[in-house]
Design brief:
Distance between the termini: 28 Å
Strand content: under 5%
């Protein structure tokens, strides 16, 4: 059973707006360290959401957590770091781990559109199952993301590299809350990239 691999900002708590670092430049109008709430954030909502591009935050529009944000909140039973600041650090750790796992899941799902051999298909399905335990927890996400599994997935994807590049490009898409047909207000703005 795959988790949802599309961002749902309404079901998140602006984790990307807090957890990710911004580097001032073409994609971001400010510098912001990881772990610090974006100054444009009010509660869980972005105060400049409707004008992100115009205000110099095109990177926010392009960012997609692939569903890691709302899944993190679900693992914490819907709690918010705003109500309990002690939750912020473990939430951000879980968010980081789930982003890694969801990125790998997205690539494995996309790989199903390739002309895989039966052996490659079996490996793909085995890796998908390994990334989707029956009951995900924050501790399980950390163990999976920091264990040997990502390297195994990367190795498998590397073996498909000549066929996979078009799929990697297709997965770089706006978040579900940024696409015009799904735009809702207020929606917390996704922020850029994390420093790994």
């Amino acid at each position: 059973d795959l988790p949802r691999l599309e961002a749902d900002c309404d079901a998140c708590a602006a984790l990307c707006c807090v957890g990710l670092a911004l580097d001032k430049g073409a994609a971001f109008a400010i510098d912001k360290p990881a772990g610090v709430p974006c100054p444009n954030l009010s509660g869980h909502a972005c105060t400049i959401h409707a004008d992100l591009d115009a205000r110099g935050f095109s990177g926010c529009v392009r960012f997609n957590c692939a569903g890691a944000g709302q899944r993190t909140i679900a693992l914490f039973d819907g709690a918010s770091w705003r109500d309990d600041p002690d939750l912020l650090a473990p939430m951000l750790d879980t968010f980081r781990h789930l982003r890694r796992l969801h990125d790998l899941l997205g690539l494995l799902v996309a790989a199903d559109t390739l002309p895989l051999t039966p052996r490659e298909q079996a490996t793909r399905e085995e890796l998908l199952a390994a990334l989707c335990p029956d009951r995900m927890t924050a501790a399980r996400a950390a163990a999976l993301a920091t264990g040997p599994l990502p390297a195994r997935v990367d190795g498998f994807l590397h073996s498909l590299r000549t066929r996979l590049q078009p799929l990697r490009e297709r997965t770089d898409r706006p978040t579900s809350c940024e696409t015009r047909s799904h735009r809702r207000a207020p929606c917390p703005s996704p922020q850029a990239r994390s420093r790994r």
